[in-house]
Amino acid sequence: MALTSKQRAYLRGIGHVRSAIFQVGKGGITDNFIKQVDEALEARELIKITVLETAFASARSVCDELCEAVGAEPVQCIGNKLVIYRESENNKKIELPPAGKR
Fold it and tell me: Which domains does the chain have, with CATH numbers?
């Protein structure tokens, strides 16, 4: 499900006030890290991640790789922070604005 610009803007507003709950460092993205992100998305739907300067990848590449690995949608990637979203199957908390017309 691709997010519309209106839905993405709504999620950016929510993500702005949240603290980062994960950090990607020189260890990069491991299978265990992907599992933790997957569980966090199921519980929270929207998470913020910080990419440390010691990481061997840019925030954009980390965002793309994580979204593909866990089936999430990128919401925002600015500087060393990224916000991703995936609708929870069992614990829906965020009500997105209707998609409407494109």
Answer: 5-85 (3.30.110.60)
Tens of pLDDT along the chain (102 residues)? 689 999 999 999 999 999 999 999 999 999 999 999 999 999 999 999 999 999 989 999 999 999 999 999 999 999 999 999 999 988 898 999 887 765
Q: Is 22 left (phi over 0), alpha (psi -120 to 50) or beta?
A: beta
Predicted structure pTM score? 0.92
Q: Side chain identity at 4, as an amino acid letter?
A: T
